[in-house]
Amino acid sequence: MSSSPNTINIESLPSWDYEQWTHTEPPQTNFLKEKLLIRSLDLIRDDADNETVCYEIVEKALKAKLFNIAFEAVHTFSQKYSRGFLESIADIFKRMEYWNHISEEFISYSEKSVLEASPCKSRWTNRYGCQDQRSRTLGYLGRYHFFTGKPEYAMKLWEAADDCIAIDMVIADMCETIAKKSPQNLESSLVILDMIQTKKIKAETLAILSEYA
Fold this sequence. Notes:
The protein has helices spanning 31-44, 51-63, 67-76, 83-94, 104-116, 133-147, 151-159, 164-181, 186-193, 199-210; strands at residues 121-126, 129-132. The two termini are 29 Å apart. A hairpin with a 2-residue loop joins β1 and β2 (129-132). The protein is mainly alpha-helical. The protein is built from ten helices and two strands, in the order αααααββααααα. The longest helix has 18 residues, at 164-181.
């Protein structure tokens, strides 16, 4: 999808100490909220069409920092490859504050499921239209691996995407994050930026990076 790893100088990239960029959200204890969400999950666990409720439980659990319930709700989706399922995984991996709570088992489950899913339009529209949610989710999964020390694997996930724009927007956001949080590594943003295929997104990102030069 994006540029081949062979065209990117991986060795020129630093190790990213993303934990210095943002605080880790601590899990919260709210027994009543937890009890209500678990009861809700139990009620629809075997429902053949529980996508909407599962998605709501994931969102409510993330907002309450009840991470284990969010992860369990993802496993509970009856339609494993539905749009809500893909959006839930994207929402979990989108925020760096959540990363230290994600287990290797959940990462593997998420990647396998998303790679096996079919393209589907996101419910969110931006100035480039309505992107493919599967690709958007692969973008955030790749972003996680890129900043946690596996850039080559991140690129493999991005190359498996169907929607170039969805991936390019994630990479553009990564470039700005580096410039903002680690300005001494601005040159690394330019290396990463070369993976962006969409001319307008690349041009916009260059203009944004100029603010940090």
